[in-house]
Amino acid sequence: APEQAARMKKLQEQEKRQKVEFRKRMEQEVSQFIQATGEPRRRFQPMNKIERSILHDVAEVAGLTSFSFGDDEDSRYVMVFKKEFAPSDEELDAYRRGEEWDPARAEERRRLRELAAQQEEAELECSPAPSGPPNDYKDKYRHLIGSDAAKAAARTMEANKAYGCVPVANKRDTRSIEEAMNEIRAKKRLRQAEDE
């Protein structure tokens, strides 16, 4: 057991050393990438999850944008982009599909999508309105209530005599909370005195 613990400790130290060395190597590569003026993005070789997380951390510290692409765990790789050349959503989708990004082809796709949307809009404008049920309940039930029934009912409405009209001054309670509470307590005491 002590030998196994010593071996485990040695393996952990070796693994830790390898991670530190890998981080230093990635920091050097990222700094070279930053200094390279003609390179807007860099694709790194496929690496495992821990190495990718280290590279993402290094890129974030350096002020770069980084994304992982690839389907299998063994074939996933990291691409690092300079902030001024941050990828568009279409570019990211192309990388996720495993395709190489081609700006000219992407512009052509975007133009075709806009053209299709314009054609669809023109078709909607030219075609007659759909003959479905109306959306407004007044239109839906017009055959039952008519068009003037609601207006006539509104004209004949009168105030309910049972409720009457209460002046605004009577609706507001101008007492303070303490005065109202004292009045309630006095009524309770009076009721209790009557019950006894």
Walk me through the structure.
This protein has a domain at 2-87: Ribosomal Protein S8, Chain: A, domain 1 (2-Layer Sandwich). Helices cover 60% and strands 7% of the residues. The protein has nine helices and three strands, in the order H-E-H-E-E-H-H-H-H-H-H-H. Strands 1-3-2 form a three-stranded antiparallel β-sheet, covered by helices on one side. A hairpin with a 7-residue loop joins strand 2 and strand 3.
Task: Give a brief outline of the structure.
The protein has 196 residues and is mostly helical. It is built from nine helices and three strands.
Order of helices and strands: HEHEEHHHHHHH
| Individual helix count | 9
Structural class: mainly alpha
Mean residue pLDDT:
82
Q: Evaluate the radius of gyration.
A: 38 Å
The CATH class of the domain at 2-87 is Alpha Beta
Q: What separation lies between the terminal Cα atoms?
A: 86 Å
Name the poorly predicted regions.
Answer: none
Strand content: 5-15%
Largest sheet strand order: 1-3-2
- CATH H level of the domain at 2-87: which superfamily? R3H-like domain
Shape: flat
Main pleated sheet: 3 strands, antiparallel
Q: Estimate percent helicity.
A: 55-70%
- The total count of strands amounts to 3
What's the architecture of the domain at 2-87, going by CATH?
2-Layer Sandwich
CATH topology of the domain at 2-87: Ribosomal Protein S8, Chain: A, domain 1
